[in-house]
C-alpha cells in the first residue's frame, strides 16, 4: 500500500464547520467543538476538527461569499488566518496555536483550501517563496465559478509547483493534519477534475513528510477518474453539497452504487458531511436557517446506514456541544462504526421503485440492508427475503436484537427507513 | 422594420485588423488601410474600418494576449486607446481624432470591445460614471476563458446597465459607427449566449441615438438563439475564428445551411472575416505566419461565393495596400456584390459527399451554385443538372459569359472550385 | 414562393382524432366530427379532418399500441384501412369513399402515416410496386422506439424512393389532402431528423401533382434543422405530445420563442393539437381519462393566444359535436383567427420569472400580449407598461373593448391568464 | 468471493473466430485452431475456443450481416447451429459434439450470443419452453442497431426470464463453458448497459449449475457501471472493436487507465482480442483484407505489455495454425503471462504527449513500463528515470536481461515501443 494511503486506513471521522457556520467560523467556536469531541466522541473514533473555507476573509459572515473581498495573505502570496476571527493567529502565528490546542486534546486539525493562488496576489504581482517569479507569472486565467478568491496555477512551471510546495510547507509547519481542497475534484466549467493541480498537491504533501490526509471537493467527482483519485487522494466528494433533504439522500444511492467498487483502505469516496443535530447557525445554504436537521429519524437512520455501509468518511456537520441523546446515539453506534471500519466488500444488490438492498462483508460478519425509499410503509415477507437473497436470521442492528423470520412472517419498514441485519 | 435593423440594410462590408495584426495594430496601419479603401474599394460598397481587440493594451504585440496586463482606462472604469499605439488618442481624446479622419475619407469607424468591465477596475474598486457604485459592486465573477481583461457585469443592477450606457455614450461621442463585442455570442464555459449583456448593449446603443452597427462574437452562436439575435444585433458570428484552411471552409457549409433561414435585412449571420491576400503580419493565430493566404484560387472563389450567397457580412482581413490584381478582382466583382446585397431567399438545395448546391433569388435574378467539395475534378452532364433541378442556361458569373448546356454536354469543376450561374 | 408552400399559405386549421381516440378512431366518429365542422366551424377557416395513427391496425382500441400486431396491407407492401373500423374501405376502396364524403362537406381529408415500410412486409419479403425488389431489399434496420409497425426505408436505392412514390400515388388517388408523417422529425435514438426520408416524401408528394400538405412529427424538431424543414415541409412539430398540463404549456413559450424566426407562409412550426373540450374518449395518454380539458379558462386563453400569435397550425383535439359555448368561443374568435392568418412578424420581447411579453405585427395592426406565468395575480401599472415598451391604448381582444391606460392606473392579470392588446 | 467470480480467477486466455472469419466460421476451421492450441499453447494457460456471432445464419460469409436473413431455430425460439456450417450439429445435436471434441483436447468451449429473442420468432409467435407465452408476448421493441437478428426480451415477465433460463439450460447441456453476449454492455441508442438483460443472464447461468464464464460486449462499457459489471459478469469490453491500427492502440491507454481500478479476480475489464498474426481471412472489418497484422513489432510489444499489465483477458484473433515464430514468442512469453496472472495492483503513473508509464505489483515483483507513444525515438536518462519514480535496476523483460542504469546513462525506446522492467 502506498504511503499516503496509510494516512487513512479507515474512513476518517470528524467535524467540519461548514454546515453550521458557512465561511464564518471563529476560533472560540472551533475550540468548543473540539473540546466536546475530545470528551464525548474521541473514544468512538472521531478525531478530525476542520475549519472550512475562507478563514482568511475578515468580513465572512455566512455561507455567502463577498465577491472580490481582500484576503489576509503573507508576503509570499500564501493565505493566512484572519487574526480578528482567529486571535491566536496574530503575530504571524498562523494556525499553529490552534493546531497545538487541538493536538493536546488528542485530536487532529484540518483546514480547507481553494485550488490556486489569490487573485489579489496576481493583480499585485507578489512573490512566490523560493523563486524569482511572481504570482502573476504562474497564474492561469481559470477561476472558480462560485468563489472569486483565486486564480489557477500553472503547475507545468517549476515555480507553480514551487508555490504549492511552499504553501504545504507552511501548513505542515503549523501542524495541519488534513487538507480539504476545493474547486478541484469537479469543475463544471473546466470540464471535470483539475488533474494537474491535484498531482501538484500530492507531490507537495509528500514533500512535507507529514501525514496529511488529502480530501478533494466539490463533487460529483467524475467516476471515470476513479483510478486517478485512488492514486492521489485519500477521499473525494462523490456528490454536490449535501443537505437535509430527502431528494439528496435518495440521490446518494445512485452515487454510492457507482463508487462502491472504487473504495478501499486509504481511498474513500466521500458522501459529504452529516447535516445532523443543530445546523445552519450562520450557514444559509441548503434549505437554510438556524435549525435542527430536517431529516426525520427514519431518514437519519437511512443516512447513517448508507454512509457506513459505503464506508464513506463520517464528518459531522452539526454543532457538537448541542448534541441531543438521539443524535449522539447515531454517532456512537458501535455496530455501525465497526461496519464502517471493517468491511472489505460492499455493493448494491437490488433496486426497484420502492426498495433498495445493499450487502457488505467483513472478515467476521455479513451485513444486509433494506432501504424503503417509497413514501409509504413497506411490508416484506420471509418468502420475499428469500427471493431477494436476504438472510432470515441475524442481528437487527437498529433494533439491537436477534431476529429469526419464517417465510410466512413479515416485517414492516417505515417510509424512508431502513432494516439492517448482521449475520 | 425596427430602427436598429436599418443600420445594416445590406450585409456590412469593411476591413478589420485582426487577421493582419492580432491585438497589436497601430494608428498608422489603420490609416493606411482606410486610405486605400477610400480610394479603391469605397465605390464598390466597402466602408467599415474596424480596430480589433486590445487597443487599450500598451504591450500587445501579436495575437497572443499578455495575461493580467495593465490596461489604459479612464477615471470611470472605461477602457480608452493607448496613446503610444494611437498617438492621436493622447490628452484624453480617445478615438475621436481617428474616427474623424476615417469619416473624412467617406468611411465608417468600428471598434472591438470585450463584454464586461476591466478586472483592474474591480480589484481597485474604481467608479462607475453617474452612479454611486464602483466596478467591484457591479462585477460578476464570470470571466472570458481566453482573455484575462474583464469581469462580467451584473445588468440586473441599474448601475450595471449604467456602466454600459456610459461606455456607449463615450464611444458614440468619439464617432464610433460599429461595435464588435466579443466573449458574448457564445461562451463554452458559461453555457451559450450571455443574453443579459447583449440586451444591455442593445439598450445602451439605442440610448446614444447614434446609428451603431452591433456585431457579436465569438461563434458559433447557438442556432436556437436565432430569434434572440435577430431582436438584438445586426450581425453575429456563426463560426469560430475562420482562417485559410480548407477544413474550416468546408465546415462553413454546415453552418451557412443552418443559419440561412435566419438571415434578413438588418440581421446578418456572419461567416467571419475573409483571410485573403497578405495576412498574418503580426497575428500568429490560424496556420500562422506572415503570408499570402493559403487558400487556392478555387477555394477563394468558393469562399466568396458562399459568403455572398449566404449574405454574410464581408469583412476583409488582409492588408489592403498590398492587394494584388487577383484579390482585388474578388473584392470588386459586381455580380457577387449585387447578389450579396439584393437576394431575398437563399438556401442549400442538395448535398452529397462530392458536391453541394445552393440556390438564391433576388427580385430580378435566380442564382445556382455548384460547389465541388471533393478532392478531385468533378464532371457533370446536363442530364445531371436537370436531375438536380439546376438550369441549363444562364450567365456563368465566374467565367463572365453566357452558357447554354445540353443534356449530353458536361461541365468540369476543379477540386474545391465552384460553378455559379445567374438565370 | 415554392409551389408546395402555397399549399398552406396560412396556418392550417382542422381536427385530428388523436386526443379523443388515440389509435382507435372509427369511420362514424370521423364523419360526425366532419359533419359538425362543416356546419359550425368551416366559415371560420377550419377545414382539415385528419385520421391519426394506425387506421390499418384491426385491434387498436386506445392510444396504447399492440406490439407486433398484424396490419392490413395491400399486395404492394402498402398499408390500407381496416374495413371493420372503416366499412367504406372494404373491397379495396381504401380511404376514397371517406375522402369523397369529406370533400362533399367542403372540407379536406388528412391521414397519419409512419415513416417506413411495414415490418411484416420485410419479414415476408412482399413486393414493391413498379420494381423487382421486395420490402426486405429496401428495408433498413432502423425502427421507431415507441411503435413496432415499421422499418426504415433505404431511399438511396431507386426502389426505396419507388416505395414512397407508390405509397403517395395510392393516397393521392384516394383524395388525401394532408399527410401527417410520424417518427421522422425528431428521433431520440437515431440522432435527430431522418432527413433522407423527409426528402423522399417531399419528392413523392411533388410527383403526385396533388396539393398535399406535409406535416412532420414528433417533436421537438431540432431547431438547427429549421432551414431544412422550410425546404421540405409545410408544418413540423416543435414539441413532444402536448396535453392539458400547465407545465407543458409553460414550456411552449421556450419553444415558440426559438422557432418564431423560422415561421412564414407555407412553413409553420407546429405547437401541436389543442386539447380543448371533450378529450380522452379512448386515448389514455397525457393526464389520461375521458374528460373535459383540465386547462382552466385562463390557461385556455393563454394557449389560444400563444398559438395564434406564434402562427401555429390550429388543430382541435376535442370532440366537435360535444363543443360547449365557451370552447366554441375560443375556436371562433375572429380577432385571434385574423391574427393567426395575417401577422408577418412575431417574437418574444421580454421574459422574467413572472411574466412574458410577445409582440406581433400585421400590415394593419400591432399586437402585444402579456402572459402571467406566475401562480398569483399580477398587477401592472401604466408606468410598467411604458418601461416594457407596451402601448397604453388599444383594443383589449379578450375583453373585446377599447382601453386607455394612464401611467398611474394599473391592470390585473389572473394567474396563467393573458392580456392581449391590438393597437 | 462470489461463486461466479471463481470461474475466472485469472484473466481468461483463448482464441475467437471473429478476427479471422467474421460471422462465417465453419466447424473444420474451429477444430484446426483447437487442435493447434491443444498442442502448442495449452501448456502456457490458453484454453478457450470461442465461436463468434451468427453460427445460426446459413448464409453468413464474412463480417457483413445479411439483414433480416432467416436463422436456424429450435421449436422453442432458441437459436441452434446451422448444420451446413457445423455438420456435427445435425439431428438436433446442437454444439454438443463440437464441445465434446474440444473438451477432449483439454480445452474449453465458448459461443457468442446476441441479447434477445429472434425477430422471426416474434413475428411467428413461436413458443417459449416451459411457459404458455410466445416470443411475441415477451419481446420488447428494442433492437440492436447493427444487426437485425433479435428483439429485446422483457425480463420483468417471468416468461422473459424463463426464455433466458431455457436458453442457458440448452447451452449448458451442450457443454458450453464461455458465453460472449453482445449488444448488451453498451448500446449507443438505448443509453448504455441493458442492465435487466445482464441480470437475467446472470441468474440463468447460475441456475444451470455449470461454470460458464460470462463476457459482455460491445464496448466501451460505461465506467459508471463498473460496480454493476463486477456484480454480474466475468469480463466486459472497455472498447469498441479493436483492430491493428495505432490510433486504436493509443486510445486503449485512456480506457485502461480508467478501468484499472475496477479489475480484480473474477472481474476483468477486457481490451478485446489480439489482432496478431494471420487475420482477416473472411472478416472485412477494421482495416480489412486477408493479411498479417498491420501492427509493427514495436506496437505488438506495446499491445502485449498493456494487455497483460492491465490484466485484460487475452483472446487471440489470428489463425493459430499459421503462427510464425515471432507471434508465438508473444503468446508464450512466460514473464508476461505471469504478470497477467499474478499482479494485484496496476495503474498508470505518468502521461505526457510523448510517453506513458505504468506500474504494477505482484506479491513477488514490481513492474514498470515506459511506453513511447510518440512518432520518434525516445531517449531517457537515468536522472529522468528517478524524476519519474522509475527504478534504475531490474530485469528488462523484452530484452530478457538484467539492467543497471546510472543517472548519466540513457536508454532508447523506438517509436511506439515499450521498455518493461521487473524489479
Automatic annotation (TrEMBL), chains A, B, C, D:
It holds the Pfam family Melibiase_2. Keywords: Disulfide bond, Glycosidase, Hydrolase. It comes from the Bacteria. It catalyses: Hydrolysis of terminal, non-reducing alpha-D-galactose residues in alpha-D-galactosides, including galactose oligosaccharides, galactomannans and galactolipids. The keyword Lipid metabolism does not apply. InterPro entries: Aldolase_TIM, GH, Glyco_hydro_27, Glyco_hydro_b. Gene3D superfamilies: Aldolase class I, Golgi alpha-mannosidase II. Belongs to the glycosyl hydrolase 27 family. This is Alpha-galactosidase. It comes from Lentilactobacillus raoultii.
